[in-house]
Amino acid sequence: MSVGSPTVCGMASKAGTKPSYKCSECGWAAIKWVGRCGECQAWGTVSEVGAVSVRTAPAAVVERPALPIGDIDVRRAQARSTGVGEFDRVLGGGIVPGAVVLVAGEPGIGKSTLLLDVAARAAREGATVLYVSGEESAAQVRVRAERIEAMAKSLYLASETDLATVLAQVQRLEPDLVVVDSVQTISSAEVEGAAGNVSQVREVTGSLIGAAKSRGIAMLLVGHVTKDGSIAGPRMLEHLVDVVVQFEGDRHSRLRLVRAVKNRYGPTDEVGCFDLSDVGIVGLPDPSGLFLSSRTLVVPGTCVTVTLEGRRPLVAEVQSLVAPTQIPTPRRATSGLDSSRVAMILAVLDRRAGVPLRQADTYLSTVGGVRLTEPAADLAVALAVASAVQDRPLPQGTVAMGEVGLAGEIRPVTGIPRRLAEAARLGFRTAIVPTGVLGSGTMPEGLKVHEVGDIFSAVQQATTSPR
C-alpha cells in the first residue's frame, strides 16, 4: 500500500497522531512532509493542512520616527581617536560612537594588550571605559595594566561571564567605551548550551550590539580564531559587527600586523604595524628598518624589494643560500615566502636565465619575520638566488620589484611609483623594475631606474653592474 493512498491518509486523520500534508498543485496527501510530491513530482509544493502563517503586525507606537536625510546629525558618525595612531589608521581615523569592532587573532598574539592600552588611553582623555574580562580575573588584568603602564582612574574592570551581568554593568556605568575579552567566553542563561557555541555567540553578540547602538557606546569585542585562522563562531558574527580587524604575526617575531577585513566607516586596505615587547605593544609608523639587515655589510645572495601592505609600502630583504649537493632531488627550504611560488621562480631561473640550480640545495628567507606573498617580490627572489649562485653581491643600494612569468618575462605590478618613492626615501640609489615604468610618471630624485623585460636581462643587469 503506498504512503499517499487515501486509506493511509484517512487512518492518520482519524487517529490524529500525525498532521496531514497536502500538495497545493494536485491535492496529493501524505502523513509526513516530503520535499517532492509523489503524484505530480513537483518540488516544494507539499505543506501542512491547516497551518497558520504568522505575520508580524506593525508596531502601535514608533519610538524613533523617520527623519529627512538632511536633518540627520552627522556628528554621531564622526570617528574619535583611540590614542593609538596605528590602530586609528586601520579603523579609518578612529572609532565611531555606537560602532562595534571585532578584533580577531590567534592566542597570545597581543589582542588583549593592545585593547587594554586603547582603553587606558581613552580613560586618560576623560572617557568612562569598562573592560570586561571573561578569561582572566580582574587582578590579572591589573597586573598587566601596571606592566604596560595602562592605569587610569576612569578605567573600570569587571571579570564576568554572564551576559545579564555584563549588560547590567553597562547600564549602571553608562560608559563611553566597552571592551569585551572575549565574546566566546560570555554566555546567557536564557539560551541553552555552553559558552562559545553558535546559539550563545549569536545571542551575546546581538545583545551587545543592541546595547551599543541604543546607547551610542563604542564597543571592542575580542574574538577567537579556529585552527585555520578564521574567526570562530557563526559567519553571522562578522556580518553583524561594523568593523572586523585581524591580528597577524609570527610568535617568534615582535612584529604584529593589524589589518581591517571589513570596515563600514573607512577603507579596508590599510595596515597597522606594532612592536610587541615585554613592556607592551607600540605602534611603528616607519617599520621598514625591521625588515633589513645591516646595509653596511654587502654579501652575495641578498636583494631588497618594496612590498605593499594595503596602501603602505614596506621595504623588505630576501636572503638566499645555494649549496652544491649530490642527492638526486635538491632541497628547497623557505621561510617567509610561498614555497610553491619559489619553486616556480627557481625553475624559470634555470630554464630561462641559465642559472644552474639542478644540483644545488636552495634556502630562502626574509629578514625580520615578514611574510612576502605578493608577486612583486618575485624579481627580488630571483636576483637573490642568482647572486648566491654566482657568488657576486648585487650593487649596494639596489631594490628590485616585478612579477616573474613562466616564459621568463617580467610583468608590471601595482603601485610602482609609491614603491619607488619609499625606496628613495630610505636612501636606495638603484631600482630594477619591469619595462614601461619610466613613462608612467615622474621618478623620485636620486634614484636611477633600470627597466628589464625578461629574467635573463634582469640577472645580467644586476650581476654585471659596477659595485
From TrEMBL:
<dbReference type="InterPro" id="IPR027417">
    <property type="entry name" value="P-loop_NTPase"/>
</dbReference>
<dbReference type="InterPro" id="IPR041166">
    <property type="entry name" value="Rubredoxin_2"/>
</dbReference>
<dbReference type="InterPro" id="IPR020568">
    <property type="entry name" value="Ribosomal_Su5_D2-typ_SF"/>
</dbReference>
<dbReference type="InterPro" id="IPR020588">
    <property type="entry name" value="RecA_ATP-bd"/>
</dbReference>
<keyword id="KW-0238">DNA-binding</keyword>
<dbReference type="Pfam" id="PF18073">
    <property type="entry name" value="Zn_ribbon_LapB"/>
</dbReference>
<feature type="region of interest" description="Lon-protease-like">
    <location>
        <begin position="361"/>
        <end position="467"/>
    </location>
</feature>
<comment type="function">
    <text>DNA-dependent ATPase involved in processing of recombination intermediates, plays a role in repairing DNA breaks. Stimulates the branch migration of RecA-mediated strand transfer reactions, allowing the 3' invading strand to extend heteroduplex DNA faster. Binds ssDNA in the presence of ADP but not other nucleotides, has ATPase activity that is stimulated by ssDNA and various branched DNA structures, but inhibited by SSB. Does not have RecA's homology-searching function.</text>
</comment>
<dbReference type="Pfam" id="PF13481">
    <property type="entry name" value="AAA_25"/>
</dbReference>
<comment type="similarity">
    <text>Belongs to the RecA family. RadA subfamily.</text>
</comment>
<comment type="function">
    <text>Plays a role in repairing double-strand DNA breaks, probably involving stabilizing or processing branched DNA or blocked replication forks.</text>
</comment>
<feature type="short sequence motif" description="RadA KNRFG motif">
    <location>
        <begin position="262"/>
        <end position="266"/>
    </location>
</feature>
<protein>
    <recommendedName>
        <fullName>DNA repair protein RadA</fullName>
    </recommendedName>
</protein>
<dbReference type="GO" id="GO:0003684">
    <property type="term" value="F:damaged DNA binding"/>
</dbReference>
<keyword id="KW-0234">DNA repair</keyword>
<dbReference type="GO" id="GO:0005829">
    <property type="term" value="C:cytosol"/>
</dbReference>
<dbReference type="GO" id="GO:0016787">
    <property type="term" value="F:hydrolase activity"/>
</dbReference>
<keyword id="KW-0067">ATP-binding</keyword>
<keyword id="KW-0547">Nucleotide-binding</keyword>
<dbReference type="GO" id="GO:0000725">
    <property type="term" value="P:recombinational repair"/>
</dbReference>
<dbReference type="Pfam" id="PF13541">
    <property type="entry name" value="ChlI"/>
</dbReference>
<dbReference type="GO" id="GO:0008270">
    <property type="term" value="F:zinc ion binding"/>
</dbReference>
<feature type="domain" description="RecA family profile 1">
    <location>
        <begin position="76"/>
        <end position="225"/>
    </location>
</feature>
<feature type="binding site">
    <location>
        <begin position="105"/>
        <end position="112"/>
    </location>
    <ligand>
        <name>ATP</name>
    </ligand>
</feature>
<dbReference type="InterPro" id="IPR014721">
    <property type="entry name" value="Ribsml_uS5_D2-typ_fold_subgr"/>
</dbReference>
<keyword id="KW-0862">Zinc</keyword>
<keyword id="KW-0479">Metal-binding</keyword>
<keyword id="KW-0227">DNA damage</keyword>
<dbReference type="InterPro" id="IPR004504">
    <property type="entry name" value="DNA_repair_RadA"/>
</dbReference>
<dbReference type="InterPro" id="IPR003593">
    <property type="entry name" value="AAA+_ATPase"/>
</dbReference>
<dbReference type="GO" id="GO:0140664">
    <property type="term" value="F:ATP-dependent DNA damage sensor activity"/>
</dbReference>
<dbReference type="GO" id="GO:0005524">
    <property type="term" value="F:ATP binding"/>
</dbReference>
<keyword id="KW-0863">Zinc-finger</keyword>
<keyword id="KW-0346">Stress response</keyword>
<keyword id="KW-0378">Hydrolase</keyword>
